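FOLDING PROBLEM:
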Amino acid sequence: MCRAEINRDILYIKITPRTFVDNPDLSFIKDNHNREMILEAYNVIHKNELWGKLRNLTPNEHEGFMFSQNPEIIKIMDLVNEKSTTGHSGLSMAITMRTIQQVARFGVDSLNTN
């Protein structure tokens, strides 16, 4: 279970384990640069077997991923940044991490809104 607070109400969301594959098909992401950033991060998380850790990490609500001081979050973002060929700004890293966290929790198909 994942615990989330919405307007001070506690909401428990059941998160089921997902099967992750090497180099998933992300062709439904139309922007090439965004697709590449997400795929690179996906592959880093997959190779380092960090899906469970990322699934359960929740950045401080006032920091998000961008300003997080959580050593576990920083370590994961450093790994993603090290392997990046596309380069990241603070904003693109934060968006990529939030996207990959969604994948960790709900699977790759959750990104496809078509």
Helices lie at 32-47, 51-56, 71-82, 90-106.
